Amino acid sequence: MSEAPETSPATSRRSLLCGAAAALAVGGTVALTGCSSSSGSSGSSDSSSAPKGPVDLGPASAIPEGGGKVFREQKIVVTQPTAGQYKAFSAKCTHAGCIVDQVKKEQIQCPCHGSRFGIADGAVQDGPAPSPLPAYTVTVEGGNLKVTPS
Question: Which of 41, 37, 85, 78 is nearest to 56 (CA)?
Answer without folding.
Answer: 78
